[in-house]
Amino acid sequence: MKSRKLSFTNAEGKALSARLDFPANQDPHNFAIFAHCFTCSKDFSAVRNVSRALASEGFGVLRFDFMGLGDSDGDFADTNFSSNVTDLISAADFLTKEFKAPTLIVGHSLGGAAAIFAGGKIESIQAVATIGAPSNPKHVQKQLGHQLEVIKENGEANVVLAGRDFTFKKQFIDDLETSSCVEAARHLNKALLILHSPQDATVSIKNAEEIYHAAHHPKSFVTLDGSEHLLIDKKNASYVGKIVAGWAARYLPEPEIETINTTHQVAASLDDEDGYTTQLKLGNHYLKADEPASVGGNDYGPTPYELVAAGLSACTAMTIQMYVRRKGWKIDNVEVHTSYSKSYPKDCEACEDDPTAKIDTFTRVIKLTAEGLDEKQKARILQIADKCPVHKTLHSATQIISSLN
């Protein structure tokens, strides 16, 4: 994933700090805006991880700090829920002018409520996704504790949230009182995905139910079972990003596949700025190859040796099924588990004295799910596995003829 630091101006003339996450080795097929949770920032772990997961699925994702938060200009005390909605509209205007109009908006917690409001006002938005969103923005009043009454009586008060001091003014409270996410959802008339955890102790899953019932179709709900409200666990956040990407594909413009023109069976293309993330064309199919993050890759796809092992595994399974069908035998399932390494031959003597004595080794384990096969049949199937075309290619003398074009 590539990420670019930038900023844009909101309706108040304040500079809002942002990052735009790009997919590796391709232009974004759609642009999305991410609205972070209450008093969070664009760099909060859940925001980063959800955005990265979306970027890995081909989205360009703009995540930014609302006015008065993070690295953005402005005084938090002068902001409110409505100003967050306005900031999202400014973000959409920025993307439209500088890149491409956004089609997806994603919001976390209070940002989810803001996403519903803003999604209904941004013409280009075709899909809205919320994560742990309250059905009524004034739900955040609970986080103000006893200071809520102080704010109402004195006009403002300092509140400590997550170890940080924030000044809240009465206008913030008044604005929340007039904002209903349920009403906004009822008039959204755009595809809506609601993600919520039944274990969410901050915003009850009852909120998701209220939003869902208010919204018109198309609408969807996904339970984030086992997740906590802030999605601190990277696996949970990445899961959310991939779910949103898969769901949104049904409602957004189809991505244009980056074509690789070739007369060969397989082609690989790698741009300088993409590290090791390589675009592959295999026949009429496209996928990515990569290296693990531990060696400088993005881990967006299998490694080259994993692809070779995958070819051996697939060919073995196909060859076995072809053989048993021809024989009239019945195998419900074939699993082929393959690993690659370099190891010493069994008959190698004094191997440790010769580092070149190691050979490429594919360890293959075949699991058959079948009834009625005797030991003789199983032994024959194992022999047939060694006759699969990829196995024979790897086991025979091979030449590679290279040229520059």
Automatic annotation (TrEMBL):
Q: Does the keyword Transport apply?
A: no
Name it: Alpha/beta fold hydrolase
Q: Which Pfam families match?
A: Hydrolase_4, OsmC
Give every Serine aminopeptidase S33 domain span: 47-134
Q: Which InterPro entries match?
A: AB_hydrolase_fold, Hydrolase_4, KH_dom-like_a/b, OsmC/Ohr_fam, OsmC/Ohrsf
Report the source organism.
Dokdonia ponticola
Metal-binding: present as a keyword of the record? no
- Which SUPFAM superfamilies does the UniProt entry name for this protein? alpha/beta-Hydrolases, OsmC-like
Query: Coiled-coil ranges per the record?
Result: none
Q: Which UniProt keywords apply?
A: Hydrolase
Entry GO MF terms: hydrolase activity
